[in-house]
Design brief:
Strand content: 15-25%
Shape: globular
Distance between the termini: 32 Å
CATH class of the largest domain: Alpha Beta
CATH superfamily of the largest domain: P-loop containing nucleotide triphosphate hydrolases
Radius of gyration: 20 Å
Number of domains: 2
Structural class: alpha/beta
Length: about 300
């Protein structure tokens, strides 16, 4: 290992739907975090690993910071804010605009209180004219004393090499935390559950997705490792939602299952026999017991 090898932690923070998960997937070169145009897609902190000759970056993709409306919302905001305090550098993702709203100012205040270097990442540069970028950079520069400002397109991969180089500048020298072939510390069952939730988010109407969770009941590999049997339940909050998720003659559930199966097979590099059910758990997002049951452990945040 090189004497100048660096390794450390970088948190991706920002409002919902600014492209944090898309950027993280792009940087590590593999899909781990689920993406969707709907807010609150990421609920847990997801840890992934980027390794190269120069060093190792452990990325924490955090839930979008928003005003919490229930216990799940509080959990998500706490998960994001705790990440601020535990890392060597923060990547704050924003939209390419010179309008800075209350949500961004709230995040700026939180970041200002920490003593961690902040790299401002202006994402979605593929959607704006190059000459407008200087105006956007100028508007944000007045908000906070940034360590660096890097415009990127997570979707297209533009300027992501520059971003990686800037992150390494703020990491301490030292050995790696994970083997170089590790890409995430997420249990495979959790990634599979999230992939199913992603497909449900993409297939369903606006109102339902915030109220769904996915529980993996069974995940077993058959002899030879060429086929994995998966039984999963989509949990929703209302009987009327259950009908919509199942769809006419089961068509919607079949659509979600087909889309999820494709992604799961790519991830596992094996065929998947996926069976989906739908159950109603009223107001599960306000139940500590059920929140924990579906993989969101509040005690993890209190360590």
């Amino acid at each position: 290992m090189r004497e100048d090898y660096r390794s450390g932690f970088a948190a991706l923070v920002g409002r919902p739907n600014v492209g944090k998960s898309t950027l993280m997937n792009r940087l590590i070169g593999q899909k781990i975090a689920i993406t969707s145009h709907k807010p609150q897609t990421t609920r847990n902190r997801i840890q992934t690993v980027y390794s190269c000759e120069q060093g190792q970056i452990v990325f924490l993709d955090t839930p979008g910071i928003h005003k919490a409306k229930n216990k799940l919302g509080e959990y998500m905001v706490n998960a994001a804010e705790r990440a601020f305090r535990e890392v060597d550098v923060v990547l704050w993702l924003v939209e390419p605009t010179d309008f800075i709203g209350a949500g961004e100012r709230h995040i700026a205040e939180k970041l200002e209180r920490g003593n961690v270097p902040v790299i401002l990442v202006i994402n979605k540069t593929d959607t704006v004219k190059r000459e407008d970028l200087l105006r956007f950079i100028d508007a944000y520069r007045k908000l906070l004393d940034f360590a660096e400002i890097v415009p990127v397109s997570a979707l297209k991969g533009d300027n992501t090499d520059t971003l990686l180089a800037q992150i390494f500048k703020y990491l301490p020298y030292g050995p790696r935390f994970y083997d170089e072939d590790t890409v995430t510390d997420q249990p495979m069952r959790q990634i599979v559950a999230e992939l199913i939730r992603e497909k449900a988010l993409k297939c369903l109407d606006e109102e339902i997705p915030h109220g769904i969770a996915v529980s993996i009941e069974k995940m077993t590999e058959r002899k030879g490792g060429k086929l994995v049997d998966i039984e999963a339940t989509i949990i929703c909050e209302k009987d009327s939602h259950k009908g919509i998720i199942i769809g006419k003659q089961g068509a919607m559930l079949k659509k979600i299952g087909s889309a999820a199966r494709y992604e799961i097979e790519r991830l596992l590099e094996a065929k998947a026999n996926l069976q989906l059910w739908v159950r109603v758990k009223k107001d599960w997002r306000d139940s500590d017991y059920l929140i924990k049951n579906f993989g969101y452990d509040r005690k993890e945040l209190e360590k």
